Amino acid sequence: MATEIGSPPRFFHMPRFQHQAPRQLFYKRPDFAQQQAMQQLTFDGKRMRKAVNRKTIDYNPSVIKYLENRVWQRDQRDMRAIQPDAGYYNDLVPPIGMLNNPMNAVTTKFVRTSTNKVKCPVFVVRWTPEGRRLVTGASSGEFTLWNGLTFNFETILQAHDSPVRAMTWSHNDMWMLTADHGGYVKYWQSNMNNVKMFQAHKEAIREASFSPTDNKFATCSDDGTVRIWDFLRCHEERILRAFEWDHVWRIICITGDET
C-alpha cells in the first residue's frame, strides 16, 4: 500500500518595518546641488576646468596619400587636378608633392593661438625634424615643447640663464644648437638632453648655422664678428670681421650689419 509523502510546510514570515516617509531623490535634494557645485570648483586643491573640444590638424593622411601616389606617378603629367571642392579633400598632398603648383604651399588660413603659462617674448621658433612638435625659445631662457597636432604644450625646460636668441638643427637631425643673449652655446640631443655648453662670444649671439657636413657651424654676435667653430672639438677655427670669402664663386656664408 503506497503512501503519499508531501513536501514539508514552508515557514512564512513577514517582517514588520516601521513606516517611513518617502524621501526625495538624491539629485532633487537642496544640499546635493550645493555639494555638486563645491566638487566642480575644487578637486584635490585645484580648480577644475571644463572639458573643451581641441581642434586637431592631422597631416598624416596627406603624407600617406603622397606615398601611395608616388608609386604610379612619374611626374606632373600623371598628377590629377585638384578642384576647389570639398570632395577633393582626400586628394590633398604635402607641398613637396605639388612642386609644379607653388600656390599649394601658401598658408592663408589662421588656425590657433597658443600662449605659455608665463607670458614673455618668444625670440626663436623651430620645428623638430619629424615635424610633430614645435620648440620655442623665450626671453626667460625656457624651452617650450608644443604639440604640432593639438597645439598644446607638452613640457617646459629651463635651458638658458639668459634669453634664447638662436636655435638650429643639424642636417642629420641628431643635434640641436642653441645660443643665448650672454654669448653661450649649448648642444642638445633630440631628447632634449644637454651635453655641452661653452661661451662662444662675449656679447649676444643672434644666429647660428651648420655647415652642409655638420662638422662646422658659424655664429654671429653683436660684437661684430662671425666665428667658425669645430662641432666635435668646440674649437674656434676662424673669425670673420668683414665680408670675405676664399672661393671665386662658392660663398660659404653672407653677413650683414644694421647699415
Automatic annotation (TrEMBL):
This is Pre-mRNA 3' end processing protein WDR33 isoform X8. The keyword Heme does not apply. GO terms for cellular component: mRNA cleavage and polyadenylation specificity factor complex. The lineage of its organism: Eukaryota, Metazoa, Chordata, Craniata, Vertebrata. Keywords: WD repeat. Signal peptide: none annotated. It comes from Aythya fuligula (Tufted duck). One of its GO terms (biological process) is mRNA 3'-end processing. WD repeats lie at residues 157-189, 198-230.
